[in-house]
Design brief:
The complex is a heterodimer. Chain A is of the alpha+beta class. Chain A contains 3 helices and 5 strands. Chain A starts with a strand and ends in a 6-residue tail after the last strand. The chains are: A alpha+beta, B alpha+beta.
Amino acid sequence: MIKLLFFARLREALQTGSETLDFSPELDSVAAIIELLQARGGIWGELFADDQSVLVAVNQEMCDSETSVKEGDEVAFFPPVTGG
Amino acid sequence: MNQIIIQTEPFDLAAIQEELRRENPAIGALVTFLGQMRDINEGDRVTTMTLEHYPGMTEKALQAIVDEANERWQLTGIRVVHRVGPLQPLDPIVLVAVASAHRGEAFQACEFVIDYLKTRAPFWKKEQTPEGDRWVDARHTDDQAEQRWRR
């Protein structure tokens, strides 16, 4: 299983904060997961088409689309941060 | 000693500074940054704000920033306190306090920590205005502030 998390603007637009995906060898990178989410179309297609406005963390560390993903990982998607 | 706290409750600025400054007689300088909520943003009145974060990653990201500050400068202690949840104008949002033997390192490290927090710690602000709710956009100037510290 891979746990997906969505925060802030993304969470609201997608109307969900989390979901789980069954891990498969084809889903071994952030890029592959983004491709799968984008292929859902509608709001998913829109939000995951523009990779500039979506940041990604794997296991709570910021990363990029090249980063690999394995069984049991937590993959979070969120907009640029605005704390402080 | 370093401490990172994420909380919904208000924090006591004076008490945190007092506790930090008394921690070690080698401390000769204490620099504190306090960020508080404004009632105006982008020209609009903001009545309340809600801060969301990514529990778990937030603490890790802040710890990494504090660790890096300690690698770059000779410091005796750092406190980072960040509030989440609903906030009103004048409410303190974030505190960064840095203690060192001398002011130069404390000033630089304090600015470094808040600059990195702004671009690397997973917090998001949502403002409530008379025209409705809106998510705050990331600022280009915050990216520029972070760039200054790149090695």
